[in-house]
Design a protein that fits this description.
The protein is mainly α. 43% of the residues lie in helices and 9% in strands.
Length: 141
Protein backbone atom coordinates (compact mmCIF):
# COMPACT_ATOMS: atom_id res chain seq x y z
CA UNK A 1 0.00 0.00 0.00
CA UNK A 2 1.38 3.40 -1.00
CA UNK A 3 1.54 6.31 1.40
CA UNK A 4 -0.59 9.35 0.66
CA UNK A 5 1.26 12.29 -0.97
CA UNK A 6 1.06 14.50 2.12
CA UNK A 7 2.74 11.92 4.36
CA UNK A 8 5.50 11.35 1.79
CA UNK A 9 6.20 15.08 1.59
CA UNK A 10 6.19 15.40 5.38
CA UNK A 11 8.70 12.52 5.57
CA UNK A 12 10.95 14.27 3.06
CA UNK A 13 10.75 17.52 5.02
CA UNK A 14 11.68 15.70 8.23
CA UNK A 15 14.64 14.07 6.45
CA UNK A 16 15.84 17.60 5.69
CA UNK A 17 15.58 18.45 9.38
CA UNK A 18 12.41 20.55 9.11
CA UNK A 19 9.98 20.64 11.99
CA UNK A 20 6.44 20.09 10.77
CA UNK A 21 4.68 23.01 12.40
CA UNK A 22 0.99 23.82 12.22
CA UNK A 23 1.83 26.70 9.85
CA UNK A 24 3.77 24.42 7.51
CA UNK A 25 0.88 21.92 7.49
CA UNK A 26 -1.57 24.71 6.58
CA UNK A 27 0.65 25.85 3.71
CA UNK A 28 1.13 22.27 2.50
CA UNK A 29 -2.63 21.63 2.60
CA UNK A 30 -3.30 24.79 0.57
CA UNK A 31 -0.78 23.80 -2.09
CA UNK A 32 -2.12 20.23 -2.24
CA UNK A 33 -5.81 21.10 -2.26
CA UNK A 34 -6.07 24.35 -4.18
CA UNK A 35 -4.89 25.87 -7.45
CA UNK A 36 -2.57 28.71 -6.52
CA UNK A 37 -0.71 30.77 -9.08
CA UNK A 38 1.80 32.46 -6.76
CA UNK A 39 3.16 32.65 -3.21
CA UNK A 40 1.06 35.72 -2.55
CA UNK A 41 -2.14 33.75 -3.22
CA UNK A 42 -0.94 30.93 -0.94
CA UNK A 43 -0.14 33.56 1.71
CA UNK A 44 -3.63 35.13 1.57
CA UNK A 45 -5.31 31.73 1.87
CA UNK A 46 -3.01 30.72 4.73
CA UNK A 47 -3.68 33.99 6.61
CA UNK A 48 -7.40 33.24 6.57
CA UNK A 49 -6.67 30.03 8.48
CA UNK A 50 -3.93 31.42 10.72
CA UNK A 51 -3.29 35.18 10.81
CA UNK A 52 0.13 34.62 12.42
CA UNK A 53 1.54 33.10 9.19
CA UNK A 54 3.92 35.56 7.57
CA UNK A 55 4.75 35.95 3.90
CA UNK A 56 8.35 34.91 4.63
CA UNK A 57 7.11 31.60 6.06
CA UNK A 58 5.19 30.91 2.86
CA UNK A 59 8.16 31.79 0.63
CA UNK A 60 10.54 29.65 2.70
CA UNK A 61 8.16 26.68 2.62
CA UNK A 62 7.67 26.99 -1.15
CA UNK A 63 11.46 27.21 -1.63
CA UNK A 64 11.99 24.14 0.55
CA UNK A 65 9.35 22.14 -1.34
CA UNK A 66 10.99 23.16 -4.62
CA UNK A 67 14.45 22.18 -3.33
CA UNK A 68 13.29 18.68 -2.39
CA UNK A 69 11.77 18.34 -5.85
CA UNK A 70 8.07 17.99 -5.07
CA UNK A 71 6.82 21.23 -6.60
CA UNK A 72 7.75 23.37 -9.55
CA UNK A 73 7.09 27.08 -9.86
CA UNK A 74 6.85 26.57 -13.61
CA UNK A 75 3.77 24.44 -13.07
CA UNK A 76 1.91 26.97 -10.95
CA UNK A 77 2.87 25.36 -7.63
CA UNK A 78 1.59 21.96 -8.60
CA UNK A 79 3.23 18.96 -7.01
CA UNK A 80 5.38 17.34 -9.66
CA UNK A 81 6.11 13.88 -8.36
CA UNK A 82 9.65 14.28 -9.74
CA UNK A 83 11.56 13.68 -6.50
CA UNK A 84 14.23 11.00 -6.55
CA UNK A 85 12.29 8.73 -4.21
CA UNK A 86 10.01 6.29 -6.04
CA UNK A 87 7.38 6.78 -3.34
CA UNK A 88 6.66 10.15 -4.93
CA UNK A 89 5.03 8.24 -7.79
CA UNK A 90 1.69 8.67 -6.02
CA UNK A 91 1.90 12.48 -5.81
CA UNK A 92 -0.73 13.94 -8.16
CA UNK A 93 0.63 15.84 -11.13
CA UNK A 94 -2.37 15.97 -13.44
CA UNK A 95 -5.99 16.15 -12.30
CA UNK A 96 -8.87 15.38 -14.66
CA UNK A 97 -12.61 15.39 -14.07
CA UNK A 98 -14.76 13.12 -16.24
CA UNK A 99 -18.35 13.80 -17.23
CA UNK A 100 -19.63 11.14 -14.81
CA UNK A 101 -18.04 12.97 -11.85
CA UNK A 102 -15.00 10.68 -11.65
CA UNK A 103 -11.79 12.50 -10.70
CA UNK A 104 -8.47 11.10 -11.92
CA UNK A 105 -5.19 12.18 -10.39
CA UNK A 106 -2.16 10.98 -12.32
CA UNK A 107 1.47 11.17 -11.30
CA UNK A 108 3.96 12.55 -13.82
CA UNK A 109 5.07 9.02 -14.72
CA UNK A 110 1.49 7.76 -15.20
CA UNK A 111 0.55 10.87 -17.21
CA UNK A 112 3.50 10.25 -19.57
CA UNK A 113 2.43 6.61 -19.90
CA UNK A 114 -1.16 7.56 -20.78
CA UNK A 115 0.04 10.24 -23.20
CA UNK A 116 2.44 7.81 -24.89
CA UNK A 117 -0.26 5.13 -25.30
CA UNK A 118 -2.68 7.68 -26.73
CA UNK A 119 -0.13 9.06 -29.20
CA UNK A 120 0.85 5.54 -30.28
CA UNK A 121 -2.77 4.43 -30.77
CA UNK A 122 -3.44 7.49 -32.94
CA UNK A 123 -0.33 6.78 -35.04
CA UNK A 124 1.62 9.87 -33.97
CA UNK A 125 4.58 8.00 -32.56
CA UNK A 126 5.76 4.50 -33.17
CA UNK A 127 9.02 3.38 -31.62
CA UNK A 128 9.65 6.85 -30.20
CA UNK A 129 9.50 8.18 -26.68
CA UNK A 130 8.54 11.53 -25.19
CA UNK A 131 11.56 13.47 -23.97
CA UNK A 132 9.78 16.71 -23.10
CA UNK A 133 6.28 18.10 -23.00
CA UNK A 134 4.85 21.41 -21.93
CA UNK A 135 1.74 21.78 -19.84
CA UNK A 136 -0.09 25.08 -20.23
CA UNK A 137 -1.64 25.53 -16.77
CA UNK A 138 -3.10 28.91 -17.73
CA UNK A 139 -5.76 27.33 -19.92
CA UNK A 140 -8.40 24.87 -18.78
CA UNK A 141 -9.16 22.10 -21.24
Amino acid sequence: MQKEPKSIIISKLRERGCRITRQRRIILDIILDEDCSCCKEIYYKACKQDPSIGAATVYRMVNTLEEIGVISRKNMYKFTGNADDEEMECVPYCRMELDDGTVLQLSDRKFRQVLTCGLESCGYMTGKRIVKYTNNPGQAS
